[in-house]
């Protein structure tokens, strides 16, 4: 796990080595163990290393045996052992035992289609000195980040935006359309980022620069065209699904334990991370170390379930107990790492957790991320199913009650009449045929937070076809899929890479040099899951039905049978303390001040003051209020750190000691 | 009646309206259509009315016909407290 950066001067002028160092200096948190730079004329690659595999010989940038290609690589190729064997049989020679060198040889063998053979999580840049081809690639589902920018005659790229900003040492302009997207979906829609003129390479894509032409190529796409619909599968068929899922998940976990350093696991107290820990423990024995987030707020805390799993598996366990105060305190640092506004504070406890992991001597953790998306776990799937069921018999008295049952932890829903539920959940005849049926309640609610935008910002945002940005990225067959597959696609292609694996994944883990590994996101598991009949993923309203029947026996009964609880952290309460009527920290008061809001110009100061007063009085209790408060504050922090104070922030980070020599 | 309507309106403005909505809210405007309240908002309105006008709101009264605009709420309050307007 590492940070990568680089530059290509498209008109042939030599690349500036010093600027490459400035870029990689910004990524030392991703790779504190080593750093290096390679240049050849107009091409430069830079790398900061977190040593995990082949600790002594894995220095990067790395070349292949014949020195015809050079690479900087962030991530892991988990099937590198098997690939090495295959490639050696084909006559390839290796200088190291690292997975990095395997990519170089795979490329030699298969060209840019080499990624089809890789099982892993990656972002890399490879320079083919013979063909004069620069080849950038990002893994299928988007575990590892990669951004790029065309500035003048240069193509620059890096793992994080701050590294690109360091290249020019110039403050970026905020992309207002991206901001509108954040305040609708929670994230910008790729390739857009919150800064103008910087793009994100979407998951499953490669970027190739050759013969003066720059092109992106989609090498993988999630596809539900092969899903098996129709009648209930026979017991024998169901057993075949169970056997295949079992085999795949076991192998996905096994190869994710490959490392020359110890591997730990996150335990949330839910089914997925418990299954991953149980599978991992089968391979590593009793020494598995597990890590958890606990909350002072009993409504959010899941430590009782976590301890059930720890007791049952006998793991060596550590946890942090987060207070609202701590979450508020750490938010600015999290925004520096997330590089975008957040509408929830949920990434913050995971940022604090990765610090515990690092301080405990670990660099790698397995997590249960990706199961809810692909195995039918999310409430939004269930909610869509109930809404469709209700819409089919719109005057039903009993069907609305299912929505209340779905959200037992939302007290405000429990008292609502069917008429209100119908309105809040958009239950209308025929609405199930709408392509975004499952997600419209969430997106519409979030978009209401745009009411806090200033008049000037609103006038600059062109009114456009609602959700056109998502619609434009759907596969052509999307319209023909069943509604469950559509909902899965929307979660897995948008929220998963852009929020869960980024703000709540890579960024908050790498902030403390910790690498997350995700057995449920093994592409074999993912591709298999796209064929599983929806009725086996969610049987009536039982989520993850097939997964529970496959591996549920590995976890304690109370964990398997518990109602699903989404991971949440205190939001508005982390910013304001209603019992004192004040902001929890001085920076919060400053960021929300009338002058600062007016100065940055994104939000309307008077409107924001009203919201702040409401929060101080403890009346900001709705989801919308919470999202708006966190969103406004984090946007203010983003502007402060990346626009107003960028130079100071970059030089603070650059002052870290460099530990490696230049190679070329 | 005017007074109740004014009090309810003020509460809605203070708690649910931000920015331009404040001037533009007509007393007959539907909260649902304008996206002014969510599930928590309805309960906030209910607890305000209960506290302010001193009566309990039974669950069956929790329907948009009673709560979906300033005018509807004040009419509902009026019917419950039985004060002539």
| Helical proportion of chain A, percent range | 40-55%
Q: Mean pLDDT of chain B, rounded to whole units?
A: 86
CATH class of the largest domain in chain A: Alpha Beta
| CATH fold name of the largest domain in chain A | Glutamine Phosphoribosylpyrophosphate, subunit 1, domain 1
Largest sheet features of chain B: none
**CATH topology annotation of chain B:** Non-ribosomal Peptide Synthetase Peptidyl Carrier Protein, Chain A
CATH superfamily of chain B: ACP-like
Written description of the protein model:
- The longest helix of chain A has 22 residues.
- Chain A is built from 30 helices and 19 strands.
- In chain A, helix 1 runs antiparallel to helix 4, helix 9 crosses helix 29 and helix 12 runs antiparallel to helix 13.
- Chain A folds into four domains: about 220 residues, Aminohydrolase, N-terminal nucleophile (Ntn) domain (Glutamine Phosphoribosylpyrophosphate, subunit 1, domain 1, 4-Layer Sandwich); about 210 residues, Rossmann fold (3-Layer(aba) Sandwich), CATH 3.40.50; about 100 residues, no CATH class; about 80 residues, no CATH class.
- In chain A, the strands form four sheets. In chain A, strands 2-3-1-9-8-10 form a six-stranded antiparallel sheet, with helices on one face.
- The radius of gyration of chain A is 24 Å and the shape is globular.
- By secondary structure, chain A is α+β, with helices and mostly antiparallel strands.
- Chain B has one domain: ACP-like (Non-ribosomal Peptide Synthetase Peptidyl Carrier Protein, Chain A, Orthogonal Bundle).
- The longest helix of chain B has 15 residues.
- The mean pLDDT of chain B is about 85.
- At the A-B interface, helix 15 and helix 28 of A face helix 4 of B.
Map the helices and strands.
The complex is a heterodimer of chains A (664) and B (85).
Chain A: E1 2-9, H1 17-25, E2 34-40, E3 43-49, E4 62-63, E5 69-77, H2 80-89, H3 99-110, E6 120-128, E7 133-138, E8 147-151, E9 154-158, H4 161-168, H5 176-185, E10 199-200, E11 205-210, E12 213-218, H6 235-255, E13 263-266, H7 271-284, E14 289-295, H8 303-313, E15 316-322, H9 324-338, H10 347-359, E16 364-366, H11 371-375, H12 379-392, H13 399-406, H14 411-414, H15 418-424, H16 440-447, H17 455-460, H18 468-471, H19 483-500, H20 502-510, E17 515-517, H21 523-529, H22 534-537, H23 545-551, H24 557-561, H25 572-575, E18 576-577, E19 582-583, H26 586-591, H27 594-600, H28 605-616, H29 623-644, H30 646-654
Parallel strand pairs in A: 13-14, 13-16, 14-15, 16-17
Antiparallel strand pairs in A: 1-3, 1-9, 2-3, 4-5, 5-6, 6-7, 7-11, 8-9, 8-10, 11-12, 18-19
Chain B: H1 2-16, H2 21-24, H3 31-34, H4 39-53, H5 64-67, H6 70-81
Helix pairs in contact in B: 1-4, 1-6
């Amino acid at each position: 796990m590492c940070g990568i950066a680089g530059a290509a001067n498209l008109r042939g002028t030599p690349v500036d080595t010093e600027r490459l160092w400035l870029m990689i200096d910004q990524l030392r948190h991703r790779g504190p163990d080593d750093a290096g730079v390679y240049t050849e004329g107009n091409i430069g690659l830079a790398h900061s290393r977190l040593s995990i595999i082949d600790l002594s010989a894995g220095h990067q940038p790395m070349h292949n045996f014949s020195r015809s290609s050079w690479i900087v690589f962030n991530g892991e190729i988990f099937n590198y052992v098997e690939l090495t064997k295959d490639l050696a049989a084909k006559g390839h020679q290796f200088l190291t035992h690292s997975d990095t060198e395997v990519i170089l040889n795979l490329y030699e063998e298969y060209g840019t289609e080499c990624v089809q053979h890789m099982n892993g999580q990656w972002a890399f840049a490879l320079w083919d000195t013979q063909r004069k081809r620069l080849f950038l690639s990002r893994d299928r589902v988007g575990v590892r980040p990669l951004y790029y920018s065309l500035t003048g005659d240069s193509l620059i790229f890096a793992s994080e935006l701050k590294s690109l900003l360091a290249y020019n040492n110039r403050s970026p302009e905020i992309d207002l359309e991206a901001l509108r997207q954040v305040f609708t979906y929670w994230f910008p829609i790729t390739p857009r980022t919150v800064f103008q003129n910087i793009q994100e390479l979407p998951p499953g894509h490669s970027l190739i620069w050759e013969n003066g032409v720059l092109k992106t190529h989609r090498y993988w796409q999630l596809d539900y065209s092969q899903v098996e619909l129709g009648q209930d599968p026979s017991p024998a068929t169901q057993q075949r699904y169970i056997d295949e899922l079992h085999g795949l998940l076991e192998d996905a976990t096994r190869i994710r334990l490959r490392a020359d350093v110890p591997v730990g696991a996150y335990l949330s107290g839910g089914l997925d991370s418990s299954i991953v820990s149980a599978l991992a423990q089968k391979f590593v024995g009793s020494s598995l170390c597990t890590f958890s987030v606990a909350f002072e707020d009993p409504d959010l805390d899941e430590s009782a379930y976590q301890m059930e799993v720890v007791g049952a598996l006998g793991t060596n366990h550590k946890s942090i107990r987060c207070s609202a105060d701590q979450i508020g305190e750490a938010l600015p640092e999290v925004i520096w790492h997330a590089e975008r506004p957040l509408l929830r504070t949920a990434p913050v406890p995971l940022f604090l957790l990765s610090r515990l992991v690092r301080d405990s001597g670990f660099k790698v953790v397995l997590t249960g991320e990706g199961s809810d998306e692909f195995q039918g776990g999310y409430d939004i799937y269930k909610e869509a199913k109930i809404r469709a069921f209700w819409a089919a018999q719109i005057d039903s008295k009993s069907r609305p009650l299912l929505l209340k049952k779905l959200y037992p932890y939302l007290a405000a829903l429990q008292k609502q009449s069917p008429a209100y539920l119908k309105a809040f959940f958009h239950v209308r005849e025929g609405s199930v045929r709408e392509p975004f049926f499952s997600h419209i309640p969430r997106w519409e609610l979030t978009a209401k937070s745009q009411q806090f935008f200033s008049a000037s910002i609103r006038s600059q945002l062109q009114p456009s076809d609602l959700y056109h940005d998502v619609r434009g990225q759907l596969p052509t067959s999307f319209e023909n899929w069943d509604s469950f597959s559509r909902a899965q696609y929307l979660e897995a292609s948008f929220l998963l890479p852009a929020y869960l694996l980024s703000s709540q994944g890579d960024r908050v883990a790498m902030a403390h040099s910790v690498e997350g590994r995700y057995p449920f996101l093994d592409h074999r598991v993912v591709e298999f899951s796209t064929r599983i009949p929806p009725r086996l993923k969610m049987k009536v309203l039982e989520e993850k039905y097939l997964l529970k029947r496959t591996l549920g026996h590995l976890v304690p009964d109370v964990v398997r049978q518990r109602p699903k609880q989404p991971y949440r952290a205190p939001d508005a309460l982390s910013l304001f303390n209603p019992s004192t009527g004040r902001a929890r920290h001085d920076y919060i008061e400053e960021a929300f001040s009338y002058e600062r809001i007016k100065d940055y110009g994104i939000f309307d100061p008077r409107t924001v003051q009203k919201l702040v007063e409401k929060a101080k009085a403890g009346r900001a209790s709705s989801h919308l209020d919470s999202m708006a408060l966190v969103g406004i504050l984090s946007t203010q922090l983003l502007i402060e750190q990346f626009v107003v104070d960028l130079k100071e922030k970059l030089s603070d980070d650059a002052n870290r000691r460099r530990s490696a020599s230049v190679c070329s | 009646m005017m007074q109740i309507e004014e009090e309810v309106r003020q509460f809605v403005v203070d708690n649910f309206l931000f920015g331009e909505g404040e001037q533009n809210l007509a007393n007959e405007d539907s909260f649902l259509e304008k996206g002014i309240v969510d599930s928590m908002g309805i309960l906030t309105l209910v607890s305000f009315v209960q506290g302010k006008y001193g009566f309990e709101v039974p669950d069956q009264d929790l329907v948009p016909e009673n709560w979906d605009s300033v005018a509807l709420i004040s009419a509902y309050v009026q019917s419950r407290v039985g004060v002539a307007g």
